[in-house]
Design a protein that fits this description.
InterPro entries: Alkaline_phosphatase_core_sf, DUF1501, TAT_signal. This is DUF1501 domain-containing protein. Pfam families: DUF1501. An 8-stranded mixed beta sheet has the order 8-5-9-1-12-15-4-16, with helices on both faces. The protein starts with 5 loop residues before the first helix and ends in a 12-residue tail after the last strand. The chain is an alpha/beta fold. 29% of the residues lie in helices and 16% in strands.
Length: 450
Amino acid sequence: MQPLHRRHLLQLGGTMLGGMTLPGLLQAESIQPRSRRATAKSVVYLHQFGGPSQYETFDMKPDAPAEIRGSFKPISSSVPGTFVCEMLPRLAKLAHRYTLIRSVQHTMKNHNSAAYVSLSGYTPPVDDIRLRDTLDLFPAFGSVVDHLSPARPGVPSFVSYPYVLRDGSITPGQHASFLGKKHNPLFFTQDPNSPDFRLPELTLPQHLTLDRLESRTQVMRLLDEQSKLLETSALAQGMDESVQRAVSMLTSPGLRKAFDLSSEPAALRDRYGRTTYGQSCLLARRLVEAGAKFLNVYLSPSIGGTSGWDTHGFNNQPMDPILKKHLLPLTDQAVSAFLEDLDDRGLLDSTLVVWMGEFGRTPRINKLAGRDHWPQCYTVLLAGGGTKPGMVYGSSDKQGAYPASGLVTPGDIAASMFEALGIASDTHIRDRLNRPFPIANGKPILDVFA
């Protein structure tokens, strides 16, 4: 028998660890959750790492001084009285299909700590660029969903792609943490825009057939023969408890089909944009159709010379060209196509789309012609999943610096996502010390739901 090579084992292990749960395991303890009527079957969390500027997107201040309002102009949208940036014309035409929350606030000013808040709903113990990922921190939203309300067999509850978020060190909040690795996402970094895009985690090693994989005993025998690797590889540990669902996913025609973007019409792929982000959004639609329940789609790495939306004006590159040439057109094309495609297929009503970064940007433009970190007030976009379309919730003050009404926290956003999926936001889970914690550090924003 040929050995199971390390890269194959890690590929197989990645699938086993990605969204692998057995219904009934590690259910929330100590507090019985109240019942909740679901308004969504799936959540697609479009996380904008770096922090998009509210001034250059959805909360413009045209009457503020020039050093605050910036150079872009507002344009009318499909909702009377609601204005968005002139660089977002497609999204302006779709304003009647989404809700804007213009009063989100927290206190973390560094990327890793702020992104942890946006990925888990919880505030870390310190606001420090050196914040490290540990199993003592709170799990990702999708891991909580997989823990409490997993998808049907053969489908991952939680999928995340195509980057690992980091600011120096890896950003916490991207995995299952103390819930256990079996609730980790099905995660991959392959580029959906690549001509040869495929998912290695769903690709069988050459010497393994479907018949052999369908035998749990045979799979475990192959793994046991690699005892040395099992002893030294952290990824390999604990795979036994999730191997049945791993095999189910590996042999699921529906899931394998979802990753075949080549089956989509070229015109539709062009509509999303032949970019990593555009094709990632298209893949999200296909995964929603396949039955995935929570998707983290990250916009992160270097775009136009900066790290995602981190538009300080690094390397003496002013903010406006990066926004104008790269970030705003990319967003306008991909997100508008995603919302329209979901709606055309009758999926928007049952899919909650959340467009959100870890914070906003400072009122004043700095000396490098950029904006700095600003968690005190920023904007989040919600669409579908039972939300009220065409609504603006909350407001910022005249300079966009602080909420003037309707204060919302990331914990409130988290509670709203859980409630939309039919998971009561006051449900408790237990950490490694057996301490109970509510899954959301906030309250659902009931006014934005129909």
